[in-house]
Amino acid sequence: MAAVFSVRHAGVWKAPTAIHVKDAGVWKAPTEAYVKSGGVWQQYWPVAAGELLATYTVSSAFTGGGGPYTGHTGTGAGLRDGLAAAANTVWANNSEPNPFIRADLGSSKAIARIEVMPIPASFGGWGASYLNGNTVSGSTDGSSYTVIATISGAVEGSYKVITVGATYRYIKIGKASGDLGMGEFRIYS
Fold this sequence. Notes:
Elements: E1 7-9, E2 12-14, E3 21-23, E4 26-28, E5 33-37, E6 40-44, E7 51-52, E8 55-58, E9 91-92, E10 96-97, E11 100-117, E12 135-139, E13 146-150, E14 160-174, E15 177-178, E16 181-182, E17 184-188
Antiparallel strand pairs: 1-2, 3-4, 5-6, 7-17, 8-11, 9-16, 10-15, 11-14, 11-17, 12-13, 12-14
């Protein structure tokens, strides 16, 4: 079960666009937050303006040295935290045919852009080459996909912005074979 964080305002439950806590009399944005889902506490990062939350499906999760890589689990907090140097903040696959990661937004939504970032080469020897060359596709039904872009020019430590300008429920990043890895995968309206 994916964690869903909502607040009630004026009798209506909504996903917040910002969260603040009062610390020593001063309102501040927290650096991290946790929610309980299915009896398990999961890390929940405050949503950036326009960021869309998703649940993730992957072809496999890397289990080699330093693995398993679990940044995609739950709400994908590990792929939305600005960190890319620990097993719980990245995702990569085991070498296989047709590796992919797929974000499910729950319903079709207008998507302006996607931001991705490679796993640094200093973490397990991955680097930008495991993200560049992958195809980004979108779908409204999860079976018929339209190619949005092929990732190129991604560099370590920087977000690669992919302009979408269309409505999709699913965003899938994948390739025909080999290894695929990323430290960040964010979707914005």
